[in-house]
């Protein structure tokens, strides 16, 4: 056998923090299926809070590490991770605080940053298992596009997309998350032993649905409310404007963007234009940067609403800007504003140009029946993400 074949190459280590969550699950799988890597493959470990999630994580061929920043000491969590590997090529932070209290959330992000410091301190001082130099971890720190606030509606002459340089104006529920990401970006670098890039994804669809699952629940609740009143549901009603922008992306495409950033930082290089030296690594084009991830185009509530209406059997389709008094009874339309009333167009041109990444999966309105079947299967299976989103839609963001 050729000793240089991929079978004999030492895998690169990836730690996904929150690997049993909606985004963490997708990111873990994306690293495992990454192909055509120049010199190696990825071995993925998943840091999870609950031992009850370990089996599901292991079934995806992700090695589970059970430890919790919210209940275990920082030293204990660090040692649990280091017991599996002392060097880490990539660490992806997909975790969220278990409590909604701002003080508890701030402490969570502080602990997460200190965990990065502790792992990096060991990684940069430990020769890799392949006998090479020590490893400086690349941290991909997840935040979200809601950090920018809202944009104008579709058709507004002043409409502009949010880019990585747009002003920040987050709703209160994500303000601490945004602050934690910016703090990590500020301290990242060689002086702390790790490099950081912040990733801001737009809302994600597919599988257990995340907030698009709440959209499906809303349409189903409207249909059920009309039938309870002895009427045939005819029109799916929304309080929001039809031109509200709903810019999302499929979970798989979003996760592939994380891999694209890692691939560019770890493997890609540019030729020395002057011809005076070796090719230059492109890692410096990733670290210290913020990258938006969003679909190839946005959808409007008119598009999404029409797809929801057709899928749930509303023959006269949709009505928008409906007043509260004319909304169906027993439907929590107020909470749906977070899904249908948050207009945002997000540019992801930066990551596309740098890495060549492209999203491929159908948009939500283009494949709604498939996405509904997947969501309902996840719901029937008791998927934790479904339950989490349901609680958030009634104002329960944690204790």
Description:
With 399 residues, this protein is of the alpha/beta class. 38% of the residues lie in helices and 13% in strands. The protein is built from twelve helices and 15 strands. The chain has helices at residues 22-33, 54-59, 74-82, 102-123, 172-187, 210-228, 251-267, 301-311, 333-340, 349-355, 368-380, 384-393; strands spanning 12-17, 42-48, 63-66, 90-93, 138-142, 195-201, 204-205, 236-237, 245-246, 249-250, 269-270, 280-281, 290-293, 299-300, 318-319. The strands form five sheets. Strands 3-2-1-4-5-6-13 form a seven-stranded parallel sheet, with helices on both faces. Strands 7-10 form a two-stranded parallel ribbon. A two-stranded parallel sheet has the order 8-15. α4 links the parallel β4 (90-93) and β5. α1 packs across α7, α3 runs parallel beside α4 (102-123) and α6 (210-228) runs antiparallel to α9. The longest helix has 22 residues, at 102-123.
């Amino acid at each position: 056998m050729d000793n240089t074949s991929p079978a004999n190459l030492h895998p690169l280590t990836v730690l996904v923090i929150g690997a049993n969550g909606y985004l963490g699950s997708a990111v873990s799988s994306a690293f495992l299926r990454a192909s055509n890597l120049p010199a190696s493959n990825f071995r993925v470990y998943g840091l999870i809070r609950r031992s009850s999630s370990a089996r599901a994580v292991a079934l995806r061929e992700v090695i589970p590490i059970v430890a919790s920043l919210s209940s275990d000491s920082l030293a204990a969590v660090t040692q649990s991770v280091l017991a599996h590997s002392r060097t880490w090529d990539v660490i992806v932070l997909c975790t969220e605080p278990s409590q909604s209290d701002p003080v508890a959330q701030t402490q969570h992000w502080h602990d997460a940053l200190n965990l990065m410091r502790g792992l990096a301190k060991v990684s940069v001082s430990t020769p890799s298992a392949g006998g090479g130099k020590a490893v400086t971890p690349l941290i991909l720190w997840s935040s979200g596009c809601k950090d920018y606030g809202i944009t104008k509606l579709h058709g507004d002459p002043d409409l502009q997309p949010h880019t990585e340089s747009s002003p920040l104006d987050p709703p209160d529920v994500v303000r601490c998350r945004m602050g934690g990401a910016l703090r990590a970006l500020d301290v990242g670098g060689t002086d702390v032993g790790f490099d950081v890039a912040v990733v801001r994804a737009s809302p994600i669809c597919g599988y257990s649905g995340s907030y698009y699952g709440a959209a499906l629940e809303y349409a189903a609740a409207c249909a059920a409310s009309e039938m309870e009143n002895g009427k045939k549901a005819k029109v799916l009603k929304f309080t929001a404007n039809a031109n509200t922008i709903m810019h999302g992306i499929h979970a798989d495409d979003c996760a592939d963007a994380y891999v694209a950033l890692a691939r560019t930082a770890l493997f890609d290089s540019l030729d020395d234009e002057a011809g005076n030296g070796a090719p230059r690594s492109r890692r410096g084009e990733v670290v210290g940067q913020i990258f938006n991830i969003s679909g190839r185009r946005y959808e409007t509530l008119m598009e999404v609403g029409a797809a929801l209406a057709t899928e749930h059997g509303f023959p006269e389709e949709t009505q928008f800007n409906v007043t509260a008094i004319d909304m169906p009874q027993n439907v929590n339309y107020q909470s749906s504003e977070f899904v249908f009333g948050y207009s945002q167009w997000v540019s992801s041109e930066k990551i596309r140009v740098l890495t060549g990444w492209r999203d491929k999966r159908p948009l939500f309105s283009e494949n709604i029946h498939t996405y509904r079947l997947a969501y309902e299967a996840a719901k029937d299976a008791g998927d934790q993400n479904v339950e989490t989103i349901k609680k958030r839609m009634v104002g329960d963001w944690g204790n």
